[in-house]
């Protein structure tokens, strides 16, 4: 009997550990909210949904400010040199070297400005914005001219198609995890509810076993 109860206690503790580890992993590694001050500041200045900015950063660099692609895209939002040069014509930027674009705040400032331009071009259509961010406006304009419905996933480039799906998915998850209608406490409460149900079921089984 003692072994049975020890096994049950270990099982309950394991469930608790898994729940809390899952929550920690989801919030801090899968869908983090780093650089919140900078993201909110420049997203608001450029009239961009902050969740879109979070999603783009998560998909582009996984919140690694030192990320660099083979195409020389740099930093959190993987800013291309040509994008930075275009931004210099419209927003106030100091005379900086390309290495300075790894700096998180500057990177987010340029990235959100670019998102605002894409948003204006595509009337806020997130799928088209994401497709253009990944494949360039030239490709997106060509696809639109060919009659493809980008908003419904008609994207010739498989990489871009998956990218758009990830961005849209990330936005929805961020809204669930951090949105006003579903807070972090809600997730913790859900974990506790899972534990309570598990404990109740275990108690019922124990009682049935003892009453035999």
How does this model look, in words?
- The protein has helices spanning 2-30, 36-45, 50-61, 81-88, 104-121, 126-135, 137-145, 158-178, 184-210.
- It is mostly helical.
- The two termini are 14 Å apart.
- The model has no long low-confidence stretch (mean pLDDT 82).
- It has 9 helices and no strands.
- Helix 2 packs parallel to helix 5 (104-121).
List keywords for this structure.
mainly alpha; 68% helix; 212 residues
Blueprint of the fold:
Layout: H1 2-30, H2 36-45, H3 50-61, H4 81-88, H5 104-121, H6 126-135, H7 137-145, H8 158-178, H9 184-210
**Could you give the count of β-strands?**
0
Low-confidence stretches: none
Query: Tell me about the biggest sheet?
Result: none
The portion of residues forming beta strands comes to: under 5%
Helix residue percentage: 55-70%
Our measurement of the CA-to-CA distance between the termini, rounded to an integer number of angstroms, reads 14 Å
Structural class: mainly alpha
Number of helical segments with 4 or more residues: 9
> How are helices and strands ordered from N to C?
HHHHHHHHH
Compute the CA-based radius of gyration.
23 Å
The shape is globular
Mean pLDDT: 82
The quaternary organization reads as single chain
Describe the structure concisely for a colleague.
The protein has 212 residues and is mainly α.
């Amino acid at each position: 009997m003692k072994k049975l109860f020890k096994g049950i206690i270990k099982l309950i503790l394991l469930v608790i550990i898994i729940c809390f580890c899952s929550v920690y992993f989801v919030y801090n590694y899968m869908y983090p909210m780093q650089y919140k001050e900078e993201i909110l500041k420049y997203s608001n200045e450029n009239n961009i949904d902050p969740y879109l900015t979070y999603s783009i950063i998560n998909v582009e660099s996984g919140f690694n400010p030192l990320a660099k692609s083979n195409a020389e895209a740099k930093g959190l939002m993987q800013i291309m040199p040509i994008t930075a040069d275009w931004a210099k014509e419209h927003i106030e930027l100091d005379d900086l070297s390309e290495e300075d674009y790894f700096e998180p705040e500057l990177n987010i400032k340029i990235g959100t400005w670019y998102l605002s331009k894409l948003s204006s071009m595509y009337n806020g259509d997130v799928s088209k914005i994401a497709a253009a961010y990944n494949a360039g406006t030239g490709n997106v304009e060509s696809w639109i001219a060919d009659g493809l419905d980008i908003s419904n996933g008609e994207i010739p480039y498989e990489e871009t198609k998956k990218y758009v799906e990830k961005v849209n998915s990330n936005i929805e998850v961020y809204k669930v995890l951090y949105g006003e209608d579903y807070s972090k406490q809600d997730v913790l409460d859900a974990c506790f509810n899972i534990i309570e149900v598990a404990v109740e079921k275990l108690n019922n089984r124990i009682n049935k076993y003892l009453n035999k």
